[in-house]
């Protein structure tokens, strides 16, 4: 496919380096890796292949910067985060271009992500000045007890490629707001959005060493292990797969780091026959399932539709999917782009073949689209989905919707909860009693009722079970980067002197 190379308004935002101690640097070895446009497979540019030693320099820079950064007031940190937000707003078009170029999602989606990502800087600029301690009524006479919040220290952050901007800002913003410094490992597939954010941090006046971005592709495991085992790092925050999360947790145990993990999901999306508006439920399911071509951790993975409305729902759902326009994210009218790489294509294809073999019926899609490029797969709807299929048990992370039938509320909640993960869950109903009952019964960290989109910087984001722990965004987000210190003053006499 002949694609025009995207143009940036500010070409200096495409940076082929890593960012350490306020400088854009190469790896000591001079080695690099290539990042490619998933739509065309063509090289975008290269980035440094960092090693353990390169990463240790970034950790040292963050440790040094922590000495002065932790002493700044919340108000000073707020001002700098606000400036970083302003820089992102000013350069939003270029951030969106970089996201579409390296991730493949359509430009409209990328613009939405650029706004969402910037909003974390805005939100935590407002939280930075509000890290309140408490006065505690002591039970020992003569003691006075109070608490203060302090930064946990240097933080290692590891983020995935599916939201090249938002996954990063959602971690960096609260860390900086709390007074921490960071070493962030950007995704090998999408390093350029991260590098643009690094340059914007410099323009916003973030002091050197407070934010460091390390890049690696082949050495990712080595860099990850360096971050999780170095005693100077006191906190690890990771978004990615459950298996990698388990490995990082094991590694971080050696130095007992504070950890927060946002791992894989397998989101149920339930449509009850008492939903007030079937069109709205279809639209919600479409947005929830096919956003970013199904490559989000909160995507609907299993769509359960009640018996009485199943056929009607399927018909409307398929109609919508037939109207999608799959293609290059920069082309007009394109609604859905490629998946990220050949491994993703292979998994999607295997899930569809497995479903067909076990009696599922493909109503639309079900095949690769090699004419568009090697990473394109047709958005797919499968009816007659059952529990034995891989699409029921594994997170597809691709543009495949399996529609499952159910009869009763009790049955569907049991099915929804029959998984070792629990990130998001969704359902449509207009019955107030049912809304409370089902929302409370779903074993997930986040529930969407009568909506398929739940992300908001103001709302706590995170899961239960093997989807991880800790919350991002919201007033709780800053707690993940803070410690509570108790100060007890003894021997305070109750009698006034003199």
Automatic annotation (TrEMBL):
What EC identifiers does the entry list? 1.2.1.16
Residues annotated as domain Aldehyde dehydrogenase: 24-487
**UniProt GO cellular component terms:** cytoplasm
Cited InterPro entries? Ald_DH/histidinol_DH, Ald_DH_C, Ald_DH_CS_CYS, Ald_DH_CS_GLU, Ald_DH_N, Aldehyde_DH_dom, Aldehyde_DH_Superfamily, Succ_semiAld_DH
What's one GO MF term for it?
succinate-semialdehyde dehydrogenase (NAD+) activity
Q: Domain of life, per the record?
A: Eukaryota
List the Pfam families hit by this protein, alphabetically. Answer: Aldedh
- Gene3D superfamilies attached here? Aldehyde Dehydrogenase, Chain A, domain 1, Aldehyde Dehydrogenase, Chain A, domain 2
Catalytic center at which residues?
262
GO biological process terms held by the UniProt record = carboxylic acid biosynthetic process; gamma-aminobutyric acid catabolic process
Tell me the route in metabolism or biology where this protein functions. Answer: Amino-acid degradation; 4-aminobutanoate degradation
* Reaction(s) the record says it catalyses: succinate semialdehyde + NADP(+) + H2O = succinate + NADPH + 2 H(+); succinate semialdehyde + NAD(+) + H2O = succinate + NADH + 2 H(+)
* Entry keyword set: Oxidoreductase
NCBIfam families, A to Z: SSADH
Protein name (record): Succinate-semialdehyde dehydrogenase
What is the native source organism of this protein? Knufia fluminis
């Amino acid at each position: 496919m002949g694609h025009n190379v995207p143009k940036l308004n500010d070409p200096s935002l495409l940076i082929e380096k890593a960012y350490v101690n306020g400088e854009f640097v190469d790896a000591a070895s001079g080695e690099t890796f290539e990042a490619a446009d998933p739509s065309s497979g063509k090289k975008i540019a290269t980035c440094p292949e960092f090693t353990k030693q390169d990463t240790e320099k970034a950790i040292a820079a963050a440790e040094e910067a922590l000495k002065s950064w932790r002493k700044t007031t919340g108000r000073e940190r707020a001002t700098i985060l606000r400036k970083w937000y302003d820089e992102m707003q000013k350069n939003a078009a270029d951030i969106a271009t970089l996201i579409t170029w390296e991730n493949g999602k359509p430009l409209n989606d990328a613009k939405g992500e650029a706004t969402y990502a910037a909003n974390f800087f805005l939100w935590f600029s407002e939280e930075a000045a509000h890290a309140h301690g408490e006065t505690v009524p002591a039970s020992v006479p003569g003691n006075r007890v109070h608490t203060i919040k302090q930064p946990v220290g240097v933080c290692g952050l590891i983020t995935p490629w599916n939201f090249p901007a938002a996954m990063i800002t959602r971690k960096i913003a609260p860390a900086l707001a709390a007074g921490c410094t960071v070493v962030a490992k950007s995704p090998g597939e999408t390093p350029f959005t991260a590098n643009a954010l690094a340059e914007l941090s410099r323009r916003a006046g973030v002091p050197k060493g407070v934010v460091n971005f390390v890049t690696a592709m082949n050495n990712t495991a080595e860099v990850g292990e360096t971050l999780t085992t170095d005693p100077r790092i006191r906190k690890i925050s990771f978004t990615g797969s459950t298996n990698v999360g388990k490995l990082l947790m094991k590694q971080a145990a050696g130095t007992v780091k504070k950890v927060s993990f946002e791992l894989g999901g397998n989101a149920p999306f339930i449509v009850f026959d008492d939903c007030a508006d079937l069109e709205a439920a279809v639209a919600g399911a479409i947005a929830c399932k096919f956003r970013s071509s199904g490559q989000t951790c909160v995507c609907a993975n299993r769509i359960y539709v009640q018996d009485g409305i199943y056929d009607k729902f399927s018909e409307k759902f398929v109609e919508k999917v037939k109207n999608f326009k799959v293609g290059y994210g920069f082309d007009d009218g394109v609604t859905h782009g490629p998946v990220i790489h050949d491994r993703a294509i292979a998994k999607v294809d295997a899930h569809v073949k497995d479903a067909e073999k076990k009696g599922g019926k493909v109503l639309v899609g079900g095949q690769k689209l090699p004419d568009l490029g090697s990473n394109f797969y047709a958005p797919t709807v499968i009816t007659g989905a059952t529990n034995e299929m891989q699409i029921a048990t594994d997170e597809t992370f691709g543009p495949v919707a399996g529609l499952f039938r159910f009869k009763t509320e009790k049955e569907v909640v049991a099915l929804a909860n029959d998984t070792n993960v629990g990130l998001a869950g969704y359902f449509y109903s207009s019955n107030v009693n049912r809304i409370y009952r089902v929302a409370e019964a779903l074993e997930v960290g986040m529930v969407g009722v009568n909506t398929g989109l739940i992300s908001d910087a103001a709302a706590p984001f995170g899961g239960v079970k093997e989807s991880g722990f800790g919350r991002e965004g919201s007033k709780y987000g800053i707690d993940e980067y803070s410690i509570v210190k108790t100060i007890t003053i003894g021997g305070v006499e109750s009698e006034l002197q003199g």
